[in-house]
Design brief:
Elements: E1 20-21, E2 30-31, E3 37-38, H1 39-46, E4 54-55, E5 58-59, E6 67-70, E7 73-74, E8 83-84, E9 90-93
Antiparallel strand pairs: 1-2, 3-8, 4-5, 6-7, 6-9
Length: 110
């Protein structure tokens, strides 16, 4: 699933947003410069679950846990501790393994 637009943006308070937000339906999370945030912080802002058995509204089946990849490599620590920084390429996956892309072309200025 693609991460939706508007996470971390206060709809009624013009110009107000959290230090992590989404402004486009591309899956790109914008992180305020100087913020030391993790993937767990983003899911908390979003109000969605993230664990080895749950990813947003999905649950794993059988013994296959939710897996995380950073820059195309398997993340071995807790997913919630993955740091969010400029141009980090994070893929979360549950179910059958699909090799994640190693690169994403970010829009100029991001």
């Amino acid at each position: 699933m693609i991460v939706p637009t508007g996470i971390g943006v206060a709809a009624l308070a013009r110009g107000c947003s959290y230090p992590a937000r989404t402004l486009e339906p591309t899956g790109v999370i914008e992180v305020r410069r100087g913020s030391a945030l993790t993937l767990g912080d983003f899911f908390r802002i979003w109000g969605q679950p993230l664990s080895t058995t749950r990813l947003v509204g999905f649950r794993t089946t059988g013994s296959a846990p939710v897996r995380a990849y950073v820059a195309g490599r398997r993340w071995r620590g807790p997913m919630r501790s993955i740091p969010l920084h400029r141009h980090a390429q994070i893929v979360l996956e549950l179910g059958t393994f699909i090799r994640p892309h190693r690169a994403f072309l970010f829009r100029p200025g991001l």
